[in-house]
């Protein structure tokens, strides 16, 4: 019952049946920053806004990072970058308890706003919470829970915020990799399906799409030479995370060793069935990945998905080749395709050095294996063709 008064008012606003509720002079607004979690959607952390008003017995959290699993065609919309996220409101004790359960550290930075600015920010939050406004089209880089919190703060203040955070001179890939190093397979997957646009340098303001960077920005932000926020305080400190990832199950090691073993066996055994089986699996894998690259780059709203130079080796046309791999003699159009594909594969290796991270380093081993397989398949076809011609001439 402690927080019931204003919470009920907020709920009524959520149904469009009430007007804004005035905050007292004792009200405090804070930015909450939560450390990364283990789930894919939580790998980069989270940002929320806390409104605490002791006079009104209020302690609420406005959360822009909520989505509904019951949304029609949920996974298709998620893949297309068209999944609507929404602003939700809940009690702070429940919010904090959920992050304690997930063992994710929670930081708080109290904003140094006057009464007018606090009320303005609260009114904007309530306006955003109205049914017609609460949903938005999530964009990982440009419009997420962190950028929404940053931008609504800026709208609450008439003066310009001076962000004095040091220029990191980092690309978007550099920023993302800080969080992906502990999950190398996820890192390889993301580097494979996202495009070269991530190699673009992010300016100081753009880095604050990440919760940790907004927290750093608030630590150095000023309005008319006065600090915008207090230093970050720890509300809950999680136990140290175990980020040790065994080197022997890292994709770079797995792909390199697998490539070496397969090429050795293919050379040693000289078994056509074994060659065909490995080739079918690799062409299937690269073809499906290529379809995903084309889909993300041309048919979704995701940022930095094109151009994607992984298309040099992960080509959807590889799926067309699969039915012909088992044939002794390849049709002419397949031979032409494999010749062009070989050129692209060879070009992909210097692309890794010149356009990093155009192709993940771990994928270089797969490219080498694909070069070997394409060469063997073409040679097998030529050999069969020569044998057929010799037999016919005799």
List keywords for this structure.
394 residues, alpha+beta, seven-stranded antiparallel sheet, three-stranded antiparallel sheet, 13 helices
Short description:
The chain has 394 residues and is an alpha+beta fold.
Structural features, described:
The chain is an alpha+beta fold and 394 residues long. The protein has two domains: 4-167 and 203-236, no CATH class; 247-386, no CATH class. It is built from 13 helices and ten strands. Helix 9 (251-269) packs parallel to helix 13 and helix 10 packs antiparallel against helix 11 (318-325). The chain is elongated and about 90 Å long.
Radius of gyration: 27 Å
Number of strands: 10
Sheet of most strands:
7 strands, antiparallel
Structural class category: alpha+beta
The average pLDDT value, as a whole number, equals 87
Q: Spatial order of the strands in the main sheet? A: 6-4-3-2-1-5-10
Query: What is the H/E order?
Result: HEEEHEHEHEHEHHHEEEHHHHH
List the domain count as a whole number. 2
| Unreliable runs | 1-5
**Oligomer type:** single chain
Please describe the topology of this protein.
Elements: H1 4-14, E1 28-34, E2 46-53, E3 58-67, H2 74-80, E4 84-91, H3 92-101, E5 106-110, H4 115-129, E6 135-137, H5 145-155, E7 162-163, H6 172-180, H7 184-193, H8 211-219, E8 221-223, E9 226-227, E10 233-236, H9 251-269, H10 272-298, H11 318-325, H12 332-354, H13 363-393
Helix pairs in contact: 9-13, 10-11, 10-13, 12-13
């Amino acid at each position: 019952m402690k927080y019931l008064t204003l919470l009920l008012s907020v709920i009524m606003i959520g149904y469009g049946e009430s007007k804004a509720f005035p905050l007292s002079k004792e009200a405090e607004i804070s930015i909450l920053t939560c450390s990364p979690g283990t789930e894919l959607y939580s790998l980069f952390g989270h940002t929320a806004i806390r409104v605490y008003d002791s006079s009104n017995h209020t302690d609420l959290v406005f959360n822009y990072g909520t989505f509904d699993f019951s949304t029609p065609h949920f996974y298709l919309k998620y893949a297309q970058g068209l999944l609507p996220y929404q602003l939700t409101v809940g009690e702070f004790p429940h919010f904090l308890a959920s992050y304690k359960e997930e063992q994710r550290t929670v930081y708080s930075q109290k904003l140094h706003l006057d009464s007018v600015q606090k009320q303005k920010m609260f009114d904007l939050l309530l306006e955003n919470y109205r049914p017609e406004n609460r949903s938005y089209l999530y964009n990982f880089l440009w419009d997420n829970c962190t950028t929404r919190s940053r931008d609504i703060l800026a709208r609450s203040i008439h003066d310009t915020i001076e962000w004095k955070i040091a220029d990191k001179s980092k690309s978007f890939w550099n920023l993302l990799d800080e969080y992906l190093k502990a999950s190398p397979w996820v890192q390889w997957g993301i580097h494979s399906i996202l495009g070269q646009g991530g190699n673009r340098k992010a300016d100081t303001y753009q880095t604050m799409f990440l919760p940790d960077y907004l927290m750093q920005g608030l630590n150095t932000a000023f309005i008319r030479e006065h600090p915008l926020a207090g230093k970050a305080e720890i509300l809950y400190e999680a136990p140290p995370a175990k980020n040790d990832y065994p080197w022997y199950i890292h994709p770079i090691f797995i792909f390199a060793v697998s490539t070496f073993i397969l090429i050795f066996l293919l050379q040693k055994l000289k078994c056509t069935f074994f060659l065909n089986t490995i080739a079918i699996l690799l062409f299937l894998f690269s073809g499906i990945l290529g379809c995903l690259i084309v889909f993300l780059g041309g048919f979704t709203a995701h940022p930095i998905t094109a151009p994607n130079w992984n298309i040099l080796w992960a080509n959807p046309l590889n799926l067309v080749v699969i039915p012909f791999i088992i044939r002794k003699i390849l049709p002419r159009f397949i031979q032409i395709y494999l010749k062009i594909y070989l050129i692209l594969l060879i070009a992909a290796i210097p692309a890794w050095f010149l356009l990093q991270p155009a192709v993940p380093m771990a994928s270089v081993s797969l490219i080498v294996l694909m070069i070997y397989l394409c060469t063997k398949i073409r040679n097998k076809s030529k050999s069969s063709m020569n044998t057929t011609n010799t037999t016919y001439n005799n």
